[in-house]
Fold:
Amino acid sequence: MPFGALPFRPTQETYVLLAIIYLAFIGLGLPDSLLGSAWPQMSGDLGAQTSAAGLVTMTICACTIVSSLACDALQRRLGTARLTTASVALTAAGILGFSRVTEFWQLVAIAVPYGLGAGAVDAALNAYAAVHLKPMHVSWLHCCWGIGASVGPMIMAWRMGAGDSWRGGYVAVGLMLVALTAFLVLTLRSWDTATPAAAAGDGDRRAADTSIPSRAEALRLPGVVPAFLSFFLYCALESTTGVWSSTFMVQARGIDEQTATFLVSLFYLGITVGRFLSGVLTLRLRGNQLLRLGVAIIAVGLVLLVAVPGATACATGLVLVGIGCAPIYPTIIQLTPSRFGDGASQALMGPQMACAYVGSLSFPPITGLVLQHVAPGAYPWLLLALLAGFALTLAATNRACARATR
Structure:
């Protein structure tokens, strides 16, 4: 029975465990948006070109892919609690290390442990949440990530405004992650004394399968390949929307740069608010219904970007795309056990997260080439193509999983 619908009065340990996981997701989001907000000042201090930030983000993404693929083995050996604690500690060390660099190469080097820690905690917590938490909590956990990602730049702006420069922002966030690490150490026993039973899936009999196959066996399960491909396409769509929306509005719609930058923030606001609302909707809708609703809302938003000029249409379109994106990532995570079985979900979560990171990493540069060599107006059409591909692979996944449970 899912955590959040327990037939008995939850114990204090149960509430502590839920608080731990929510705080961990906020901590996961805190450092994610720091580099972008600090880079204009960082690049000058470190003597780096503006474009050099791409090398740092690529290093972080590559390391998150590596640690995601290793997460299954580490989780079996250490358990979720210890792996999460160690990963947050590694992330904290990386963030504090960023505050001490004096040359650009040092920033790239420290991005390695930071990326390894961030990828491992992301995959470990998502694997745990998918099996043990109610869908409502999975959506709200990812809403907490959005809160952390929104608060990070605020902390950076606060420290820079106080005369600390970007280094003070990294120190502040790093110390917050150190405090989170200490909290995780002090509450390690809560994972053992309050671990809830496996969460209910969407009525799929494979959710009851708790045997733990090897990764090779799990990867051969029906529906795995289209499921991974759908996650890749969705994350490509989300990251491309965030990276290139401003350029599209400035170059293709004639909107001034300051307004375009503000309008992009509406996309992320839509995701954060939408994830809270999708958590409520999980009480009424099944996972696949939420996915189809998200696809429909994204489609409406993209049609506005294609067909209607002007800042108002762009603002409305980006908000709708954000709201439509909101349920998709957490719902795909939550559906993994019901699609492939509780036991297989642990083996599959790392590779699935790696596919997500590859989509986020690879497609924005491809989109940049298209916009440069074709036209900025091709941007929403490219997003529509990604959305169509996601919808097709989602349908293929559902058909394969349905056949496997007959």
